[in-house]
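sorry to bug you again but im stuck and you know this stuff better than me. what follows is a protein written twice so to speak, once as letters and once as structure tokens for the fold. id like you to explain what the token line says about the fold, in plain words if possible. anything you notice is useful, everything is just below.
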Amino acid sequence: MNDWITPDWPAPSNIRAITTTRNGGFSHRPYDSMNISSYVGDDPKAVQKNREYLQSTLNTPSQPQWLEQVHGTLAVNAAHITEPVKADACYSNEKNIVCTIQTADCLPVLLCNKTGTTVAAIHAGWRGLADGIIEETIKAMACRGNELIAWLGPAIGPKAFESGDDVRNAFIAHDEQAKTAFIRQANGLWLADIYKLAQQRLAGQGVTACYGGNFCTYHDKERFYSFRRDQTTGRMATLIWLT
């Protein structure tokens, strides 16, 4: 049995999207149980079994397009991927191409246009988010921001993402309003709200229809993997495609 998440957003009816949780799969501790990542040290047979279960359960029209994520800003056309490519976002305006990213604290961002002709999945760790992965993806999609709808999936929450001056300064260098997403702690560090930072970046591109953003991978151990909490752990998948 799984407790996977279907985005609560007003996407057109021809768009399918889902985020897995850590539950419902075949991996053993500390990857229990629905780890879909092949690069975290899990048994490759268990990972393959999880991926096959994911595809059969969702009845995806094609195999998910897996990326080799590097915390960068490259967005690629998922229809053109023939082998794993170093990128942190993929998009498609073709039917039955399954855009896929994987996370365990980093922010999964889904985008679609209001007419249901293009979709994208973004892996937004703080580095990629600060460097412009959202902006680069929207540029690659060739859509105006007011044509888009966004959904923010499970990520480390604002009461758990402790960071230093380097993270805060990276965002403020781009936009002074990023200061509102950081709260100073007694130990001199900051609590960062990655959801708010993403919303600010989306708004800067004209995307005001933004949903989700009410999860915390760090504090919800029963449901989510968290790299910051556990270090050795699995990854969730976030998928989107056009039918």
The chain has six helices and twelve strands. The mean pLDDT is 97. The domain at 15-158+207-242 is CATH 3.60.140.10 (CNF1/YfiH-like putative cysteine hydrolases).
